[in-house]
Design goal:
The chain is α/β, with parallel strands linked by helices and about 230 residues long. It has one domain: Rossmann fold (3-Layer(aba) Sandwich). It is about 45% helix and about 15% strand. It contains seven helices and seven strands. The chain has a seven-stranded parallel β-sheet with strand order 3-2-1-4-5-6-7, sandwiched between helices. The longest helix is centred in the middle third of the chain and has 29 residues. The protein is globular. The termini are far apart.
Length: about 230
């Protein structure tokens, strides 16, 4: 019997790749996003993760589903700009999607996983947090919040057998960095411990481990893809 896995940000980029690879690994995927993915056969639900009511509406039928095993909070947005040039509405949207969205989904689905006594939650941060990258201050702040939340949430969920971990990639060739000047991307890569552009598969390999039974005792950690 297949375990069920909820993935946010399922319509494109990292989220879409994680949906595909997790399905190939034997999970039944429930994909959440604001736009419909192109992936055929995906159990897709419209959801704006920054809206707690939207999250609840999208997955309410899974509340008592014994096959529900995990959540990957892959939804995220960024605006590469100096803080003084970032409009307040952009700041609000970044924090709402990246931080509040992670909290809303984790709180709701974590409650259901706790009742089952097992489960996995994977959240996403960025190397922009430890590297304090110029022009990514608001984005990094939202993701720093994700890291702190995840560490504390892992303590709360440990007694219920649910692990909570964070994956923090450097630059990956997705739409998220498509408009970032190459010189800026190269500058970030030069500060990584492993100096190359990350791939979606680099991220999946860590996620696959965290979803596996081998990671039962791994929780409250941040995994930096590329090193910081």
């Amino acid at each position: 019997m297949k375990r069920k896995l909820i993935v946010t940000g399922a319509s494109s980029g990292l989220g879409a790749h994680l949906c595909k690879r997790a399905a190939e690994a034997g999970f039944e995927i429930i994909g959440l996003s604001r736009t419909r993915p192109e992936a055929p056969g995906l159990d897709w639900r419209h959801c704006d993760v920054s809206d707690a009511d939207s999250v609840k509406s999208a997955v309410s039928d899974l509340r008592r589903d014994e096959r529900l095993f995990g959540l990957i909070n892959a939804a995220g947005i960024a605006a590469m700009n100096l803080t003084i040039a970032t409009p307040p509405e952009t700041v609000h949207r970044i924090v709402a999607v990246n931080l509040l969205g992670t909290i809303y989904c984790s709180a709701l689905i974590g409650k259901w996983l706790a009742r089952r006594g097992t489960g996995r939650i994977i959240n996403f941060s960025t190397l922009a947090v430890p590297l304090a990258i110029k022009g990514e201050s608001v984005y990094a702040a939202s993701k720093a919040g994700v890291e702190t939340f995840s560490r504390a949430f892992a303590r709360e969920m440990g007694d219920f057998g649910v692990t909570v971990n964070v994956i923090a990639p450097g630059p990956i060739d997705t739409k998220l960095i498509a408009k970032v000047p190459k010189a800026n991307v190269d500058g970030i890569i030069d500060r990584q411990l492993i100096r190359r552009m990350g791939t979606l598969e680099d991220v999946w390999r860590i996620a696959a481990f965290l979803l596996s039974d081998d990671s039962d005792m791994v929780t409250g950690d941040v995994f930096h893809v590329g090193g910081a």
